Structure formats: C-alpha cells, structure tokens
Amino acid sequence: MKEEKTLYIVVPCYKEQEVLPETSKRLMKKLRDLEASGKISKSSRVMFVNDGSSDDTWPIISRLHAEHPEYFSGVNLSRNRGHQNALLAGLLTAVKKADMIISMDADLQDDINAVDAMVDAYHEGYEVVYGVRSKRETDTFFKRFTAEGFYKVMKALGVDIVFNHADYRLMSKRAVEGLAQFSEVNLFLRGIVPQIGYKSTTVTYERAERFAGESKYPLKKMLAFAADGITSFSVKPIRLVFNAGIIIFVVSLIMLIYSIIRKMTGVTSDGWASLMVSIWMLGGLQLLGLGIVGEYIGKIYNETKRRPRFIIESVLDQDGEA
After folding, report:
1. CATH of the domain at 29
2. Side by side, which strands form the sheet with 165-172?
3. pTM of structure
C-alpha cells in the first residue's frame, strides 16, 4: 500500500470576508473526500494567507481554525504585500509540513474538482501540475482579448510561460524548495515556476464566475502586473528600443542626403509639416525609450535593497498559534 502524502492548499486572501465561508466549506469537503479515498493523509490542511486585509478576513480565518483545527490553518502577514508575495509566504510556510502544495485563489473561480486530477498527477510522478483554463467564455471580450494577448506577447519575448495558466497549480515539496532559492523581490510566479524544472504536466478546467465580492485586479493592476512580468523576464523591450534607434539613425542619414540634394538642385520648400512630424516622432521615441530603461533601473533598485518580500505576524497551524 502506498504511503499517504500530506496536501496543503494555500489560498491568498485580501478582503475576502464575503466568500471565505463558502470557500472554506467547499475546500473542507474536498479534503474529506480525498482523505476517504486514501489519496492524502489526515494531516492535510487548507492554509489561508491573510494579505493585510482591513475587513474581517483574519477573524474569519481564526474562527475557522478554532472550530476545525484539523482542516484549517492560517498565516497573517504584518501588512498588505500583494498577491504574489502572499502566495509565496503561504508556500514557504506550508512546505515545512506538506509533501505537495496546491495554490488557488479564494474567489471560487478555480474549479475545486481539478484538485483530484492534480493529486493523481502527483502520484504518477509529476512534481509541478499546472491548472490551465480550457476556455474563457465567462470573460468579457476585452478581458479575453487582453489576457490571451498578454500570454502571446510574453511568449514572443522569450518568456517560458504556460498559456492560460494563472496561479492554480500543484507543486511537490522538492519543487517549492527549489522555488525558495529564487530570491528576487519583483515576483512573477507564473514565469518563475517553469524555471524550476522537474517533471510537469497540465490539468484543464473551466473557470467560473466569482462567487462573491469584487475582483482585486482592476485594469490598472492588471497592466502593472503585465509590465512586471515582461520586465522581470525579458530584456527584449530594451533591444527593441536599441533597434528602433538604429533604424531612425539610418533614416536620418538618408533624409540628410536627400535634403542636401534638394538644396543643391535649388528645389526647396518650407517643410513645416515634415519638421513637426519628425520632432514629435523623435521626442516620443526618446521618452518611450527612457521610460523602458527607467522601468528596468527601478527593478534593479528594488532588488539591490534586498528588503523582505513579506513579514509574517502570526501562524495558526497544527501546533497552535506561533
């Protein structure tokens, strides 16, 4: 008989008081079913990570742990650090006691039933199992177009990323320990996890509508997240600016020769329109180039400070409060 393995489900939470009661109920049932089937051990847990929420998220997590300590754990960050840092905090805390860890969002958009297929894949020898959306029918046209465009741009820039995969995945203990060796402050886990290596596979699922509450990723945050992902894993934007500079320089030489010839043949004109277009185009390209270079310099600045990615205030787990 195969040895039962411990599963921890890590769920980052930021102002999720509306959805947590239902999320906890469904996840507890899922753990019970997996335990009954012998796929996981009875020491398996759901670990909610409170990312500095200002609502009742942490009191709800504390109550869940008090009522069902055999199913629920909690990690409370000292302040809001963002989804990626909260997720990492949960992973690095859970890895101390888990054989495999599944990360998922609290909003119930990720299909909980896909957990079974992920656990089965783990038992088959896979150390990283990516949850991949089979379709995006629940998204608006704008969300679907921009999201799929983001993955395609990342691929075109040479980033190793799984198409239509967010942060719903299973990682073995060894894979999370490998993740812990990546020390960058600017986290983009969708790009980092494939860098770990190890045997991996995918599980497809259909993403549902958010059960309750509001999305924590409005357009502004989505754009910032995309920019972080691109600049954290590719230098191609800088190379594009460099190539654009070469092309403009060559064009300017051609225009210089053309202007000299026109002057020597006596064919001259005021040239106001062409002058204005050139000034605006070159000025815009210069500002764009400075902005891209500045984004990379900002990343370097943040990395060199080596500030902690998160600070844990308290942990509720099998051993009580720490």
Report:
1. 3.90.550.10
2. 200-205, 128-133, 165-172, 100-103, 7-13, 45-50, 72-77, 312-317, 320-321
3. 0.70
